[in-house]
């Protein structure tokens, strides 16, 4: 059996190609029904752990799920019983701590774990504290629900233009810009320029920002002692919103942008149109989240206000999770093609990449394995973007075998 994508000879019993990962038993050429990280899940799935913790899902999938479940359950229980200082702290640090443990558990960047954590988590945390203090002081108080209504849903007379602009424009846009700093500094380094690295750095930065933003905004609850048992449903919902929904939204949004900065192919892509698009997606997601949560805070029932905010945040998070899974799946398929090319040219040789889809090219390739683009046409249209592998240029040209009449080869057509 031969793989239809990379032409690798496969055992007759193979289901997936061991070189490019394609599904050879179905017509699902793009492998949309089998997520590269977890083959028993489709790419279009809402599974959070296999999305934000892809490297460990094959070995310890239940460990991370259990850790998140226990920490969030503990936060909700403490909130229901009125221990709000403990509940806020547990909610704020639950996902960040689990994620950092995940990084060390899978032994990522084993040579330099400190710079990764310092830039992706520590620097973003400091920037989050400074900015959140600045904009909350601008309004003169710290907000319990994270909105600018000045109290618990419905206590303010109504939405104010200035407050709405701060909640729906200033905070999301500046916050996303701050979350980009650490990951982009890391992704520019040669050892960290892989798409998977950029995605991971972005998620770490996003959950770090959400963590310290929550602590600063709810500092009055952290230092105010127990709040009693009044409105336990509202407090539990608030903890879920701040401890789970917000970090997922921020982490996945920033991860998308940083992954596009790293990009496919050799080295990091940098500030390309794809990065601008990814950054725009992240900003739009945060603007929608901030605007919705602010407006919902004016509902007359405080518990209902937070519950509607949770539903709104989960809808945004679901879209972002699907987007991350597509980026991740595409990146892993690219890595498979790169490994295939490396087997031919060697580890030290320079690879060449398709200018259209940025996938690695096999030596002597006339067409891209991934997108089917004719490389010679690409070269003739854009000489400065020559993408044909070097091995094909330097290798001596062999006499072409005689072709049957009427069956011209690709290169014969080009020469004519």
Plain-language structure description:
The chain has 416 residues and is mainly alpha-helical. It folds into two domains: 56-341, no CATH class; 375-415, no CATH class. It is built from 13 helices and no strands. It has helices at 49-52, 61-80, 84-105, 113-139, 161-187, 195-217, 219-222, 232-262, 273-296, 302-345, 375-381, 390-394, 410-415. Helix 5 (161-187) packs antiparallel against helix 6 (195-217), helix 5 packs across helix 8 (232-262) and helix 6 (195-217) packs antiparallel against helix 8. The longest helix is centred in the last third of the chain and has 44 residues, at 302-345. The protein is elongated.
Short description:
The chain is mainly α and 416 residues long. The protein is 59% helix and 0% strand. The chain contains 13 helices and no strands.
Key features?
PrsW family intramembrane metalloprotease; 13 helices; single chain; disordered C terminus; 2 domains; metalloprotease; membrane
Mean pLDDT: 75
Biggest β-sheet, characterized? none
Number of domains: 2
- The share of residues in helices is 55-70%
Q: In percent, how much strand structure appears in the residues?
A: under 5%
Please trace the helix and strand order, writing H or E for each element.
HHHHHHHHHHHHH
Spans of at least 5 consecutive residues with low confidence: 141-155, 379-416
Structural class: mainly alpha
State the end-to-end CA separation.
35 Å
Gyration radius over CA: 25 Å
Global shape? elongated
Number of helices: 13
How many extended strands?
0
Biased composition (Acidic residues): 405-416
Keywords: Hydrolase, Membrane, Metalloprotease, Protease, Transmembrane, Transmembrane helix
Pfam family, one: PrsW-protease
Organism: Auraticoccus cholistanensis
């Amino acid at each position: 059996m031969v793989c239809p994508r990379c032409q690798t000879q496969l055992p007759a019993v193979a289901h997936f190609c061991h070189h490019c990962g394609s599904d050879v038993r179905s017509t699902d050429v793009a492998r949309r029904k089998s997520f590269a990280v977890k083959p028993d899940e489709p790419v279009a799935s809402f599974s959070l752990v296999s999305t934000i913790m892809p490297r460990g899902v094959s070995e310890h999938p239940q460990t991370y799920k259990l850790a998140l479940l226990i920490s969030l359950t503990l936060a909700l229980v403490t909130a229901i019983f009125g221990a709000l200082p403990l509940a806020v702290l547990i909610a704020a640090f639950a996902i960040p701590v689990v994620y950092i443990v995940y990084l060390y558990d899978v032994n990522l960047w084993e040579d330099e774990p400190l710079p990764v954590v310092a830039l992706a988590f520590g620097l973003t945390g400091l920037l989050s504290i400074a900015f959140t203090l600045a904009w909350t002081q601008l309004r003169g108080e710290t907000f319990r629900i994270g909105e600018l209504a000045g109290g618990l849903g419905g206590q303010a007379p109504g939405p104010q233009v200035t407050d709405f602009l701060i909640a729906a424009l200033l905070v999301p846009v500046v916050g996303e810009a701050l979350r980009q700093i650490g990951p982009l500094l890391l992704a520019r380094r040669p050892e960290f320029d892989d798409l998977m690295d950029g995605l991971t750095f972005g998620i770490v930065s996003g959950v770090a920002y959400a963590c310290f933003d929550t602590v600063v905004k709810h500092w009055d609850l952290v230092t105010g002692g127990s709040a009693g048992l009044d409105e336990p449903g509202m407090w539990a919902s608030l903890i879920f919103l701040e401890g789970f929904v917000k970090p997922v939204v921020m982490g996945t949004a920033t991860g998308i942008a940083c992954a596009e900065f790293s990009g496919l192919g050799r080295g990091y892509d940098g500030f390309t149109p794809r990065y601008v698009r990814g950054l725009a997606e992240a900003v739009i997601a945060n603007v929608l989240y901030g605007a919705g949560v602010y407006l919902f805070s004016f509902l007359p029932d405080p518990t209902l206000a937070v519950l509607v905010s949770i539903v709104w945040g989960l809808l945004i998070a679901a879209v972002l999770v699907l987007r991350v899974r597509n980026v991740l799946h595409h990146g892993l398929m690219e890595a498979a093609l790169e490994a295939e090319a490396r087997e031919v040219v060697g580890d030290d040789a320079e690879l060449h990449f398709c200018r259209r889809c940025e996938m690695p090219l096999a030596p002597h390739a006339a067409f891209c394995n991934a997108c089917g683009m004719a490389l010679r046409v690409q070269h003739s249209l854009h000489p400065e973007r020559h993408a044909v592998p070097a091995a094909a240029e330097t290798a001596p040209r062999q006499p072409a075998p005689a072709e049957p009449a009427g069956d011209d080869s690709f290169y014969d057509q080009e020469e004519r």
